[in-house]
């Protein structure tokens, strides 16, 4: 009887007991529709300082978080590897033949790496981050994609507002390795001339005529206006939606958990208990903290569980309840202590330690499920400005992983202690994190990775292709880390000698 | 510092709310969709036969389904009510003073009703469906919006492809009350003349002149879009929706898993396998799908055993979606209705009082389900031929979307086992065919009993429970 099924132990997915291995591969998505089989090359287009790299990195972070393996290939970084010393804008002069040759070679090298990534390294989307301002260059990329059977989606950023351009230059260009020996004024002047070099030959995308058959989005004036042409598939539609929701207004996101709860004190997971005395004290401290932050128009979001709402109540401000922010559902283990779980469900207990991201509680959820559940929260956070999210440990780990570009492997072990507010501020290409402990004691609910788990996941473990990966380091690393101390875009969790890609424990596989 | 307000859990929806003096203080709003404080006025723009009414109706249906009270106001309908008999396109000639007067009156009457809906009747979104092809007319409407505190969002449909226009005319114009006494050729000719009447004065939304307005311009039935100044969450959702819908003919098949072991016992929820009859159904379904000869059929299931077993019999690739899982009955999982009445009589009564909003303790409500299923609906809009093998409550939610059912009707829609519903978009709506695959199954449909009072005797609570083992 072909309908016999067995349930995978880790993810609780029902799969056929396959007597006929020749059947077509089956695909299991926790999160929505099947990704297109063809990988996609996203091609950035635009003059320098138009936000291409900003969008590339942000988009890549989002796609990896929702489980679509994505990587940025920044041609400027390839150029920095080849041309050891940047001299001046004259390198970019259209008459500089020698330089033009080098620049073209860099683009080709980057495309070769794109090909490797999409064909052999399990990548689904490659973001080709360069100016790509001429039809000729774009045709070259289109030909490359056609040869390899990749889909192409163009993202063009057009902006003529001089104050936006100047502000971009200040934010990310002055500190570029290209200008490390220059003063700010010198750097600014040189960069403006660099832009002029491109302006002369700039051929914007023309969806009304020449480019009418291309799939593209034109982002005008930092998101005031968009032109979208021929969206081919689900992932392009998500990309468009995402780009239309992000903004660059300065703002701050505060993440914290509810105050310590009765169950926290008892060591019980899940449930819907109220705050302990100390938890109530925390809420009061939180109220005071917010007053001191002196924020304009703060939105406050809670889950629909009592403990977050009680916490919000103390703030005496309007708040919105989101069911999507509820803590991970521990299914049959709800309201148990870890000791009780170990005793009653020893196998489940062990499985969870082996692969905490994919592990789904029986009749409950996994971190992977949580990510899917939280995606609309992330989308709305992108739309908003100042927001305080009062949530739960697992939920907060997922949200934090998005902002700090953490992989599926790291996510379930991120430290989110009680009574501590994480203040996230977008800066340059990443996010600054400040951790503020509000000085009210609480139990520790964090469980470190077990010894068992440190040995690595069971290689026979079945994977669903939804796996947040941290956005891989760009293939050619910048030689100088020019970011601030707390900037989370430099991942510190792996030793720098091991390139991320090789240590990719969560390599997505569309088959099992 | 005053101590924080105590919380109480609303018995129906299980939402925690503060209360003082024993009464809930209306304070925090549970977030379903964004509740913007400003109502939104959507203004359609475009020549006749460009799909404005199609878009208006579809968008209205979607917004209502996700819980945003929306209504469309079709000015042509107002005109038909006022001018009892339509004679010819000459009514629309730009120099027909009488015609112009009447048409202006109709627009004004429609706007009055918009105001009543948005400002007095609790409406959140009004869709003003008319050509609105001149800048002057649009400025009047925009001012109206400003005066009343509405945000205005324009949706323009631009299309020059004569085949598309001809197809639209055939689909929805020939059957219009305006042409009830005309032959098809006559009607088409008249309608083409009607379109001409608008062309000369048509001022499309302009990149410069209209740069401060919020709008989306849809070109060539969705080949490309121009989006300007999206102001808020609801506008962003509207844009996303409009960018995902298409008009390519296709069919959507909805059915439940085959009869399950728990179905036989009259138990709800759980994760059991198919009964022997359920397996029969799966085989019949395979045959049925084969006979339908569908091009590129996508098959979706939930992650529960019974839907997957059903799909397995089809011998084609399928995708599992966790969000298609049956409604979570929380503490009542795997109980019979009789057991629920015995152990949770209050819950059982509350559910009958408001089945849409009622949330099982530690479980879900239909309202929660709708939110959970929204990405499925969005992807169904993107797709072409799809078979969704799901569950009773889930299927009711999806069906309610396609058939434009209200929250009150939704939880009582009939979705019997072993019956495939075939939905085919046609004109402004959806054609529905119900195909019973001729394999017997238990009935799992429980009608609302007469007595929903919490003090009702058990017999009256259980009177509508279908028979089971």
TrEMBL record, chain A:
The active site is at 258 (tele-phosphohistidine intermediate), 327 (proton donor/acceptor). GO terms for biological process: fructose 2,6-bisphosphate metabolic process; fructose metabolic process. Residues 446-455 have a biased composition (Basic and acidic residues). Residues 30-250 form the 6-phosphofructo-2-kinase domain. Substrate binds at residues 257-264, 307. GO terms for molecular function: 6-phosphofructo-2-kinase activity; ATP binding; fructose-2,6-bisphosphate 2-phosphatase activity. It comes from the Eukaryota. This is 6-phosphofructo-2-kinase/fructose-2, 6-bisphosphatase 3 isoform X4.
TrEMBL record, chain B:
Substrate binds at residues 256-263, 306. GO terms for cellular component: cytosol. Signal peptide: none annotated. Gene3D superfamilies: P-loop containing nucleotide triphosphate hydrolases, Phosphoglycerate mutase-like. GO terms for biological process: fructose 2,6-bisphosphate metabolic process; fructose metabolic process. Residues 35-249 form the 6-phosphofructo-2-kinase domain. The active site is at residues 257, 326. InterPro entries: 6Pfruct_kin, 6Phosfructo_kin, His_Pase_superF_clade-1, His_PPase_superfam, P-loop_NTPase, PG/BPGM_mutase_AS. Keywords: ATP-binding, Hydrolase, Kinase, Multifunctional enzyme, Nucleotide-binding, Phosphoprotein, Transferase. GO terms for molecular function: 6-phosphofructo-2-kinase activity; ATP binding; fructose-2,6-bisphosphate 2-phosphatase activity. In the C-terminal section; belongs to the phosphoglycerate mutase family. This is 6-phosphofructo-2-kinase/fructose-2, 6-bisphosphatase 4 isoform X1. It comes from Phascolarctos cinereus (Koala). The gene is PFKFB4.
């Amino acid at each position: 009887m072909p309908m016999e099924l067995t349930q995978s132990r880790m993810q609780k997915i029902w799969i056929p007991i396959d007597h006929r291995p020749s059947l077509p591969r089956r695909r299991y998505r926790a999160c929505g529709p099947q990704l297109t089989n063809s990988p996609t090359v996203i091609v950035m287009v635009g003059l320098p300082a138009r936000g291409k790299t900003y969008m590339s990195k942000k988009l890549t972070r989002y796609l990896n978080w929702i489980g679509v393996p994505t990587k940025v290939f920044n041609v400027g970084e390839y150029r920095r590897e080849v041309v050891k010393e940047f001299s001046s804008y004259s390198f970019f002069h259209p008459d500089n033949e020698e330089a033009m040759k080098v620049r073209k070679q860099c683009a080709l090298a980057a495309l070769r790496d794109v090909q490797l990534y999409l064909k052999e390294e399990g990548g689904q989307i490659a973001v080709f981050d360069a100016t790509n301002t001429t039809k000729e260059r774009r045709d070259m990329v289109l030909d490359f994609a056609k040869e390899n059977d990749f889909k192409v989606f163009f993202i063009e950023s057009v902006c003529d507002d001089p104050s936006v351009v100047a502000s971009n230059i200040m934010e990310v260009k002055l500190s570029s390795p290209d200008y490390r020996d220059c003063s700010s004024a010198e750097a600014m002047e040189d960069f403006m001339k660099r832009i002029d070099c491109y302006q002369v030959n700039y051929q914007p995308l023309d969806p009304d005529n020449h480019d009418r058959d291309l799939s593209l989005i034109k982002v005008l004036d930092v998101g005031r206006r968009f032109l979208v042409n021929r969206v081919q598939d689900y992932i392009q539609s998500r990309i468009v939606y995402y780009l239309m929701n992000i903004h660059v207004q300065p703002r701050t996101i505060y993440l914290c958990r509810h105050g310590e709860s009765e169950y926290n004190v008892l060591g019980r997971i899940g449930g819907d208990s109220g705050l302990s005395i100390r938890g109530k004290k925390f809420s009061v401290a939180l109220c005071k903290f917010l007053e001191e932050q002196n924020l304009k128009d703060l939105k406050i979001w809670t889950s629909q569980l009592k403990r977050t709402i009680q916490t919000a109540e103390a703030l005496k401000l309007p708040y919105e309840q989101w069911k999507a922010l509820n803590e991970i559902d521990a299914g049959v283990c709800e309201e148990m202590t870890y000791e009780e779980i170990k005793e009653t469900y020893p196998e489940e207990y062990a499985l969870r330690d082996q692969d905490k991201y994919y592990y789904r509680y029986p009749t409950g959820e996994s971190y992977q499920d949580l990510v899917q559940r939280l995606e609309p929260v992330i989308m709305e956070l992108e739309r908003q400005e100042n927001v305080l999210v009062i949530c739960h440990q697992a939920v907060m780990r997922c949200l934090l992983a998005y902002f700090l570009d953490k992989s599926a492997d790291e996510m379930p072990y991120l430290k989110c202690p009680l009574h501590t507010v994480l203040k996230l501020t977008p800066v340059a290409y990443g996010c600054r994190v400040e951790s503020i402990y509000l000085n009210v004691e609480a139990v520790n609910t964090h469980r470190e990775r077990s010894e068992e788990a440190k040995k690595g996941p069971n290689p026979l473990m079945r994977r669903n292709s939804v796996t947040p990966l941290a956005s891989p380091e760009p293939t050619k690393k910048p030689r100088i880390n020019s970011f601030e101390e707390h900037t989370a875009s430099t991942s510190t969790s792996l030793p720098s000698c091991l390139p991320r890609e090789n240590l990719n424990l969560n390599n997505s596989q569309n088959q099992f | 510092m005053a101590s924080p307000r105590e919380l109480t859990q609303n018995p129906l929806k299980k939402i925690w709310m503060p209360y003082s003096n024993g009464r809930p203080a209306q304070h925090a709003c549970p977030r379903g969709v964004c509740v913007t404080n400003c109502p939104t006025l959507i203004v359609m723009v475009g020549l006749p036969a460009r799909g404005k009414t199609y878009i208006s109706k579809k968008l209205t249906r979607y917004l209502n389904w996700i819980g945003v009270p929306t209504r469309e106001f079709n000015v042509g309908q107002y005109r038909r009510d006022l001018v009892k008999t339509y004679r010819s396109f000459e009514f629309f000639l730009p120099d027909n003073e009488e015609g112009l007067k009447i048409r202006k009156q109709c627009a004004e009457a429609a706007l009055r009703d918009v105001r009543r809906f948005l400002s007095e009747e609790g409406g959140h979104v009004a869709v003003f469906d008319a050509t609105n092809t001149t800048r002057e007319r649009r400025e009047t409407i925009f001012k109206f919006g400003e005066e009343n505190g509405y945000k205005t969002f324009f949706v323009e449909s631009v299309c020059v492809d004569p085949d598309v226009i001809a197809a639209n005319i055939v689909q929805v114009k020939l059957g219009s009350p305006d042409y009830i006494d005309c032959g098809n050729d006559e009607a088409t000719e008249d309608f083409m003349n009607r379109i001409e009447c608008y062309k000369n004065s048509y001022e499309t939304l302009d990149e410069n002149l209209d740069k401060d307005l919020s709008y989306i311009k849809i070109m060539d039935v969705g080949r490309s879009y121009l989006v300007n100044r999206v102001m808020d969450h609801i506008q962003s959702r509207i844009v996303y929706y409009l960018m995902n819908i298409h008009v390519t003919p296709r069919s959507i098949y909805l059915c439940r898993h085959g009869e399950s072991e728990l179905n036989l016992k009259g138990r709800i929820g759980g994760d059991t396998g198919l009964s022997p009859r359920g397996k029969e159904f799966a085989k019949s379904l395979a045959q049925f799908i084969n006979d339908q000869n569908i091009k590129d059929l996508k098959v979706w299931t939930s992650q529960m055993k019974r839907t997957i077993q059903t799909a397995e019999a089809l011998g084609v690739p399928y995708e599992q979606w966790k969000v298609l899982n049956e409604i979570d009955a929380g503490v009542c999982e795997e109980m019979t209705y009789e057991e629920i009445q015995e152990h949770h009589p209050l819950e059982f009564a509350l559910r009958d009082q408001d089945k849409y909003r009622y949330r099982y303790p530690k479980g879900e409500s239909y309202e929660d389900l709708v939110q959970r299923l929204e990405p499925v609906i969005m992807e169904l809009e993107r797709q072409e031929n799809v078979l969704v093998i799901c569950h009773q409550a889930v299927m009711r939610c999806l069906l309610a979307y396609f058939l434009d059912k209200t929250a009150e009707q939704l939880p009582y829609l009939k979705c019997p086992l072993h019956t495939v519903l075939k939905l085919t978009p046609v004109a402004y709506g959806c054609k529905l065919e119900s195909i019973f695959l001729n394999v017997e199954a238990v009935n799992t449909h429980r009608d609302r009993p007469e007595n929903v009072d919490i003090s009702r005797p058990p017999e009256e609570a259980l009177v509508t429970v279908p028979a089971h083992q």
